[in-house]
C-alpha cells in the first residue's frame, strides 16, 4: 500500500514533481493562443498554419493519452512520466528554434506525444505514492496549483511574446524539465509495471489518432486545397474512424471498451462534453486573436484580459461541485452551458474600440460563471455514471473526448465562419468571422444544454466523487482517479 505522507519531505518533492510536469503541458495549452498573431507574422504563416499550430499538438495528445497511461502501468509510471517530460522538453526546444511554420507544426505534434506520456502520469504518481489518508488532499493541491498555472499562463505568455519573443513560450519548458527530471528520479518512488499484463491496443490508438488527423486536415484545408484532395482525406478519416470502432468492438482488451457506453448517463455526459468543449476550444482560440487583431491589444494585454474566466474557475468550482452533489447534476449541466452561450453572445460587442470594462469583462464574467456551474459537476457525473472500478477509464475517455472536440472546433470554425487564409491580417474581415464563430459556439452550447436536460439524471447514492474539485483548466477536464485501468495494458 502507498505510504508516503504529504507532510513528509518526500511527499512535498513528489507534489512538486507532478505539478512541474503537468504545468508544462498546461502552460502550453493556455499560452500558445496568445502568441499566434506574432507567430504568424514572424513565420509568414497563413490562418491554416495557425490552426495547425494548435491542432497538431491536440491530435497526438487526444489520440494517444489513453495509451500513454497504459504504458505507465506496464513499464512503470515514474519511468514513463520522466520520458514524457524529456520528450516534451526536446519537442519544445524544436518549437522554439523552428525556422518556419512547417517545422513548428511538426514539433508541436511531437509535443503532443510527450504530453500524452506525462499528463496521465502526473496524477497516477500521486495516486500510487501517497497514503490513502493524504491522497485526496494531495490531489486537491495538485489540481489547485494546476489552476494557478492555468491562471497565470496567458499573462506569462503575453509577457514573453511582448518581451523576449514568442519562442520563449516554448523554450520556457526546457528549464522546467531540467528541474523536474532530477527531482523525479531522486524522490519519486516507482509504481506499476508488475501487475500489468496483456496486449497494448496500439492499433486502436493509431486508428483513433489517424482519424482525428485526417478529418482535421480536411476541415482546415477545405477552403484552400484542391477539392479532390480534401474529399479524399475526409473519406480516409471517416474510414479510419469506422475501423477504430470495429477494432475496439473486436479486441479482447480495447483501449476504449464499447460496452462502457451502455450507460445512458455516461453517453449523455460525453455528448454534453463534446458540445461544451468544442465551444470552449473554439472560443479561446479565436478570442485571443480577436483582442489583438481587431481590438488592438498587445499580447500581454490580451492574455491578462482572459484571466477572469480562469480565476472564477479556481475560486468557485469547489462550491459548484458541492452544490451539484446536493441538488444533482441535471440543473447545473443545463444552466451552465446556457450561461456560457450568453457570455459568447456578449462577445459580439467586442469589436474595434471596445471597452474592457463595459464590453470584454462582462462577457468573460458570464462565461466564467457558466464554466464554474458546469465543469465540476460534469467531471463528477462522468465518474458516477460507471462502476467505481472503471472510474479512471471513464475519466480518460471523457478527457480525450474534450480535447478531440476542441481540436475539431479549431479546425471547423474558420471554415464555417468564412475566414480566408489571411483573415488574421485583416481586422474587418476577422471581426465579421469572429461574430459568426461565436454564434456557432453558442449554438453548440445550447445543444449541450438540451442534451443534459433530456438525458442526465442524478447518480445513484454512494457513487464516487472526484477527489479534486478545485479546477482551473479551461480546455479539458482534469484526469480524475486512476487514469487508466490495468486491463488497458
Question: What features would you describe in this structure?
Answer:
This protein is mostly helical. The protein has 3 domains: 1-194, MFS general substrate transporter like domains (Growth Hormone, Chain: A), CATH 1.20.1250.20; 202-250; 262-475, Growth Hormone, Chain: A. Helix content is 75%, strand content 0%. It is built from 16 helices and no strands. The chain has helices at 9-43, 47-75, 77-96, 101-129, 132-162, 167-171, 173-187, 202-221, 227-250, 264-294, 299-305, 307-327, 330-346, 356-384, 391-416, 427-455. Helix 8 (202-221) runs antiparallel to helix 9, helix 8 packs parallel to helix 15 (391-416) and helix 13 (330-346) runs antiparallel to helix 16 (427-455). The protein is globular, with a radius of gyration of 21 Å. The two termini are 21 Å apart. Residues 481-489 have low confidence and may be disordered. It is a multi-pass membrane protein. The chain crosses the membrane at residues 12-36, 48-68, 80-99, 105-126, 138-160, 166-188, 200-220, 226-247, 268-289, 295-318, 330-348, 360-388, 400-417, 437-456.
Amino acid at each position: 500500500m502507498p505510504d508516503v505522507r504529504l507532510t513528509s519531505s518526500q511527499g512535498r518533492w513528489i507534489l512538486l514533481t507532478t505539478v512541474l510536469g503537468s504545468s508544462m503541458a498546461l502552460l502550453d495549452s493556455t499560452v500558445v493562443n496568445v502568441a499566434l498573431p506574432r507567430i504568424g507574422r514572424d513565420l509568414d504563416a497563413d490562418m491554416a498554419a495557425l490552426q495547425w499550430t494548435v491542432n497538431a499538438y491536440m491530435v497526438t495528445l487526444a489520440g494517444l493519452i489513453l495509451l500513454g497511461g497504459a504504458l505507465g502501468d506496464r513499464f512503470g509510471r515514474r519511468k514513463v512520466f520522466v520520458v514524457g517530460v524529456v520528450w516534451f522538453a526536446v519537442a519544445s526546444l524544436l518549437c522554439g528554434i523552428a525556422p518556419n511554420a512547417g517545422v513548428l507544426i511538426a514539433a508541436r505534434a511531437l509535443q503532443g506525444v510527450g504530453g500524452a506520456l506525462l499528463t496521465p502520469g502526473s496524477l497516477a504518481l500521486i495516486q500510487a505514492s501517497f497514503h490513502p489518508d493524504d491522497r485526496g488532499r494531495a490531489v486537491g493541491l495538485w489540481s489547485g496549483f494546476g489552476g494557478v498555472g492555468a491562471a497565470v499562463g496567458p499573462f506569462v505568455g503575453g509577457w514573453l511574446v511582448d518581451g523576449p519573443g514568442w519562442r520563449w513560450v516554448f523554450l520556457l519548458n526546457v528549464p522546467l524539465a531540467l528541474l523536474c527530471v532530477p527531482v523525479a528520479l531522486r524522490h519519486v518512488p516507482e509504481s506499476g509495471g508488475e501487475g500489468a499484463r496483456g496486449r497494448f491496443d496500439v492499433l486502436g490508438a493509431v486508428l483513433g489518432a489517424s482519424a482525428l488527423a485526417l478529418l482535421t486536415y480536411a476541415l482546415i484545408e477545405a477552403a484552400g486545397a484542391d477539392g479532390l484532395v480534401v474529399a479524399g482525406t475526409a473519406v480516409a478519416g471517416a474510414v479510419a474512424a469506422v475501423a477504430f470502432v470495429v477494432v475496439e468492438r473486436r479486441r479482447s482488451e480495447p483501449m476504449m471498451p464499447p460496452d462502457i457506453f451502455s450507460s445512458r448517463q455516461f453517453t449523455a455526459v460525453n455528448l454534453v462534453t463534446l458540445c461544451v468543449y468544442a465551444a470552449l476550444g473554439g472560443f479561446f482560440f479565436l478570442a485571443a486573436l480577436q483582442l489583438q487583431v481587431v481590438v488592438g491589444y498587445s499580447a500581454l494585454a490580451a492574455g491578462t484580459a482572459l484571466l477572469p474566466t480562469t480565476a472564477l474557475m479556481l475560486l468557485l468550482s469547489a462550491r459548484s461541485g458541492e452544490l451539484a452533489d446536493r441538488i444533482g447534476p441535471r440543473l447545473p449541466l443545463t444552466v451552465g452551458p446556457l450561461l456560457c452561450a450568453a457570455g459568447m453572445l456578449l462577445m459580439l460587442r467586442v469589436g474595434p474600440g471596445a471597452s474592457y470594462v463595459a464590453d470584454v469583462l462582462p462577457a468573460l464574467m458570464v462565461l466564467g460563471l457558466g464554466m464554474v456551474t458546469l465543469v465540476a459537476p460534469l467531471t463528477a457525473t462522468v465518474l458516477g455514471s460507471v462502476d467505481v472500478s472503471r472510474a479512471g477509464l471513464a475519466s480518460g475517455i471523457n478527457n480525450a473526448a474534450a480535447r478531440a472536440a476542441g481540436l475539431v472546433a479549431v479546425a471547423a470554425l474558420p471554415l464555417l465562419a468564412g475566414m480566408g487564409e489571411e483573415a488574421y491580417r485583416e481586422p474587418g474581415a476577422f471581426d465579421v468571422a469572429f461574430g459568426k464563430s461565436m454564434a456557432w459556439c453558442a449554438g453548440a452550447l445550447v445543444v449541450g444544454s438540451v442534451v443534459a436536460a433530456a438525458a442526465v439524471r442524478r447518480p445513484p447514492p454512494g457513487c464516487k466523487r472526484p477527489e479534486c474539485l478545485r479546477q482551473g483548466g479551461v480546455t479539458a477536464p482534469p484526469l480524475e482517479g486512476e487514469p487508466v485501468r490495468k486491463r488497458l495494458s
